[in-house]
Design a protein that fits this description.
By secondary structure, the chain is α/β, with parallel strands linked by helices. It contains 17 helices and 12 strands. The protein has 2 domains: 239 residues, D-Maltodextrin-Binding Protein, domain 2, CATH 3.40.190.10; 192 residues, Periplasmic binding protein-like II (D-Maltodextrin-Binding Protein, domain 2, 3-Layer(aba) Sandwich). Strands 1, 2, 3, 4, 7, 11 and 12 form a 7-stranded mixed β-sheet that branches. This is ABC-type glycerol-3-phosphate transport system substrate-binding protein.
């Protein structure tokens, strides 16, 4: 499961919170107030590739969402950070539906958090409220970072999502997007060349559909967030997006949206029964079991295709970014931000962990284990990662022309309308043209509220 599948009900009553704290090493006391516990932030790493700084006796708390497969990687990194720096890092893991409210309540009150895992939907809200600390000075300080490391080490389009009002507040990870996977063996047997655009994808899906019990294509169809992600990626590949820079006025182009809608309804004709009940993991499972010739899905889910323990088709896939016609490849940028709480008294130590964890080496470990991707440029050149996650070149191409998930407050409601409307079009309950009109009305009505 990935982040956008959890964008439901995050205004739950705070009193219902059920937080679980995972303590990663022995705890010690922490100071309150400003950045009073500076430690020795420019101390060289105790081991090659390790974190910078010595922060003996500093006790940090990290706020994140609970119940996901990436906890183990963060726990291992936090253990190693604690061992090498002398600090202590604990994880306050909260169910996603309660995370926003718990973070807002805590950041606006006592200094209980040092590091905050912030979803794009509420990053702007927290930055505007003054809950987050800018990190420009940390990023530009050569003594706090590995040689050659700076803001330029990250993919610029991804790093920019952690910037607000001209200041950098966060470092990104959990990067993913939507790409196309296709069975090289089935394409070769049928004499079909590698698909170059969505027209090729649809033609190949129709030709291969039903042969030896294999569906032509599979993709998410359940209204859990991924349908809007695929649709948004198709808009991006046409140089269009849901909203303008202000995040309020709808800029969805009817022609581009109709092309995206046509892709969904045409693809559904070559998809397996039950498409509208398939989330990202379900679609990937169908592909991994050899029941589809093409899959359009998010990259964390696609990692299962290359896992021989889960997939009977491992090693038989090749990947291309979504491209419409002769346009540029494109995709929706899915990510999370690592930020430092403005009222933390351990900001230098917090930055030390952020830099260490979001750099290539640690992100590569998490990527191989869980299928999420890093945000540094070097990450996409790492041969070990690419060999295990061969969709990386397609992702890198898509991210060069990407739009981040909308962060308007009304997006969860709009997203649901978009997805249920696409489902109606797939079922033939409404025409593609009418479905696009309905989506446009929802964007204009709710986007201005």
């Amino acid at each position: 499961m990935f982040a956008t599948q959890r964008q439901r009900g995050w205004y739950a009553v705070v009193a219902a919170l059920s937080a679980s704290v995972l303590v990663l090493s022995a705890c010690s006391s922490s100071d309150e107030g400003g950045d009073s516990n500076d430690g020795t932030p420019d101390a060289k790493p105790a081991a090659e590739g390790g974190p910078y700084g010595k922060f003996t006796g500093q006790d940090l708390t990290l706020s994140r969402w609970a119940g996901d497969p990436w906890t183990a990687g963060q726990k291992a990194a936090a253990d190693e950070w604690s061992k090498q720096t002398g600090g202590t890092l604990s994880l306050d893991a909260v169910p996603y539906e309660n995370l926003h409210d718990k973070q807002a309540l805590t950041l606006g009150g006592a200094a209980d958090y040092d590091i905050v895992y912030v979803h794009p939907s509420w990053f702007g809200e927290f930055a505007e409220a003054g809950y987050l600390a800018p990190i420009d000075d940390y990023l530009s300080d050569a003594k706090r970072n590995p040689p050659g490391f700076s803001a330029d080490s990250y993919l610029s389009n991804v790093l920019a999502q952690g910037k607000y009002d001209g200041k950098q507040y966060c470092l990104p990870d959990f990067v993913s997007t939507v790409v196309v996977g296709y069975r090289t063996d089935l394409f070769s047997q049928a004499g079909i060349p590698a698909p170059k655009n969505t027209d090729d994808v649809l033609a190949a899906a129709a030709k291969l559909n039903g042969k030896d019990g294999v569906a032509g294509i599979v993709m998410p169809g359940k209204a859990t967030g991924a349908v809007a992600d695929v649709f948004g990626s198709l808009l991006t590949a046409q140089g269009n997006w849901w909203y303008g820079p202000d995040g309020k006025k709808s800029t969805m182009d009817v022609k581009a949206a109709t092309k995206a809608m046509d892709f969904y309804t045409e693809a559904a004709k070559s998809a397996p029964t039950g498409l509208l009940n398939m989330a990202v993991d379900d679609a990937a499972t169908v592909a991994a079991q050899g029941k589809a010739a093409i899959v359009v899905d998010t990259t964390p889910a696609l990692s299962a295709l290359e896992d021989s323990a889960k997939s009977t088709t491992a090693g038989k896939w090749a990947y291309v970014p979504l491209t419409v016609g002769s346009g540029k490849p494109g995709g929706e940028l899915i990510y999370w931000n690592w930020c430092i709480a403005a009222n933390s008294s351990n900001k230098s130590a917090a930055y030390s962990f952020l830099q260490y964890y979001t750099d290539t080496a640690q992100q590569a470990k998490v990527a191989i284990a869980a299928g999420t991707l890093g945000a540094t440029k070097d990450f996409y050149q790492d041969e070990n990662v690419t060999s295990k996650l061969p969709f990386l070149p397609a992702v890198n191409s898509a991210l060069e022309n990407s739009n981040p998930q909308p962060s308007v407050a009304s997006w969860p409601s709009i997203q649901n309308t978009i997805e249920t409307t696409i489902q109606k079009a797939v079922q033939g309950q409404t025409s593609d043209d009418q479905a696009v009109k309905d989506i446009q009305e929802a964007l204009e009505a709710l986007g201005s509220s």
